[in-house]
Design brief:
The structure is a single chain. The chain is an alpha/beta fold. The protein folds into two domains: 2-50 and 368-424, Urease, subunit C, domain 1 (Roll); 53-358, TIM Barrel. Helix content is 29%, strand content 24%. It contains 13 helices and 18 strands. α3 (163-173) packs across α6, α4 (184-194) runs antiparallel to α6 and α6 (207-220) packs parallel to α7 (240-246). The chain starts with a strand and ends with a strand. Bound molecules: N-carbamoyl-L-aspartate (NCD) and zinc ion. N-carbamoyl-L-aspartate binds next to loops.
């Protein structure tokens, strides 16, 4: 049989690495063999690693039907940045100008994403004080729900008094749940105390705020969540002690910035203001060690684009968040080459685990019958990050000027070759 496309090289799955050919037809993987497959088109990927398409569980693509924040990012630019970063599926957060808390808003967002998005975009439904009793009406439109326990961009958060009710409401839908764990009460106490010194973002939102919020989630959620049908994921863990607190009860995410930067870096570059904030070097090293030992389930971007003008405002007024989609693949190369992270662990945290968590059974590993979504990484191609080469609309990167050891060579999305290094074909 003559296949549509063959990709040849080192295939990395969560539990094995081997050299083989992958045949692709009509958007799906139809055969995997050591050799002998025939096709119209063949891509040889010497010195590269072929991963299952990366799935970003946590991105802010900003667009909704109000189009108020399209100047920061939209579905087209956001997914172009994702493809540049090697991502084939992206899950969009609900804190848009019109918070995504009803099926009506979700349907409008989905339609925009369908026409503009370059890859698969799926959506979180937001939980607010006003929709706790009606979140089930959104369940057809969402892949998972999101709860914020503190103020952040967009102002979508709930008070901790209603947390048990909110968790129970999500459990009733049987959908996964992601929780932003910072305790608003701790932040407010700190704001009172700091008053004149609001420059200290990491003091305004101290480690205690994260730990306190996680404890509240532990108290509000019942049973061993990982073994139940329902699943909770603690968003962007910034404090290594959070990992000890949650043990095996919840899933958890980490971002590139929390594995790479510290609060010292914020003093040199105020654009690194982010929620939750960056912490100490010791904390960063412990998070990295936990990541390497497989204790963290997902590597997410928390891509949170704001313009350079917005980020250049007085520090306490500037919005929090950093863009991360374009550089995700470069960062993965850094983890492999500089930190010794095993490629199989990358396949797990960047593709397999997110697919399992979201119950996306058609992706997450390289197997016959799965969607042909592949992220092909050249780990021997040093790349210096230059903002003008990024696809994100905000055109800056926390990694500006940094040289990473590798880059995304190709992205295959539903069987189509959509990129070669920095060139996008879509
Ligand atoms: C995010 C944003 O800008 O939407 N900002 C951030 O600092 N991470 C919101 C969030 O995830 O808290
Ligand atoms: Zn976020």
């Amino acid at each position: 049989m003559l296949h549509d496309l063959i990709i040849e090289g080192k295939i990395v799955n969560p539990d094995a690495i081997h050299d083989a050919q992958i045949a692709i037809d009509n958007g799906y993987i139809t055969a995997i063999r050591k050799q002998g497959l025939k096709s119209e088109r063949k891509i040889e990927t010497q010195r590269c690693l072929i991963f299952p398409g990366f799935i970003d569980l946590h991105a802010h693509l900003r667009e909704d039907s109000s189009h108020k924040w399209d100047y920061k990012e939209d579905f087209k630019s956001g997914t172009a940045a994702a493809v540049h970063g090697g991502i084939t599926t992206v899950i969009d957060m609900p804190n848009t100008p019109l918070p995504c808390i009803s099926s009506d808003r979700l349907i409008k967002k989905k339609e925009l994403a369908r026409t503009e998005g370059l890859i698969d975009i799926l959506f979180y439904g937001g939980v607010s004080d006003s929709n706790i009793n009606t979140i089930a009406t959104m369940q057809k439109e969402v892949i998972a729900y999101k709860i914020y326990l503190a103020e952040t961009t967009g102002g979508l958060y709930i008070s901790d008094d209603v947390l048990p009710k909110a968790i129970a409401a999500v459990e009733a839908t049987a959908k996964p749940l992601v929780i932003h764990c910072e305790d608003q009460r701790v932040i407010e106490k700190m704001r009172e105390r700091l008053k004149v010194n609001l420059l200290a973002h990491s003091e305004l939102r101290p480690e205690e705020a994260e730990l306190s919020a996680v404890k509240k989630v532990l108290a509000a959620a019942s049973g061993d969540i990982k073994t139940k049908k329902n699943k909770i994921d603690i968003a962007h863990v910034s404090v290594y002690r959070t990992l000890d607190l949650i043990g095996k009860r919840f899933h958890c995410e980490v971002t590139p910035h929390h594995l790479f930067f510290t609060k010292k870096d914020v003093q040199a570059n105020a654009f690194l203001k982010v929620n939750p904030p960056l912490r100490s070097e010791e904390n960063r090293l412990r998070l990295l060690a936990a990541f390497k030992s497989g204790k963290i389930d997902f590597l997410v971007t928390d891509h949170a684009p704001h313009t350079k003008e917005e980020k250049a405002r007085a520090f306490f007024e500037a919005p929090a968040g950093v863009p991360n989609l374009d550089t995700y693949g470069n960062f993965v190369a850094w983890l492999i080459v500089h930190c010794g992270v095993p490629p199989m662990l990358i396949a797990r945290v960047c593709a397999y685990n997110p697919a399992l968590f979201l119950r996306l059974h058609d992706r997450g590993s390289i197997e016959v019958g799965k969607r042909a979504n592949l992220s092909i990484l050249d780990i021997h191609k040093p790349v210096k990050i230059h903002s003008e080469r990024l696809y994100t609309k905000c055109k800056w990167s926390p990694f500006e000027g940094y040289e990473f050891p590798g880059a995304v060579r190709h992205v295959i999305s539903n069987g189509a070759v959509v990129t070669e290094y920095e060139e996008l074909y879509i």
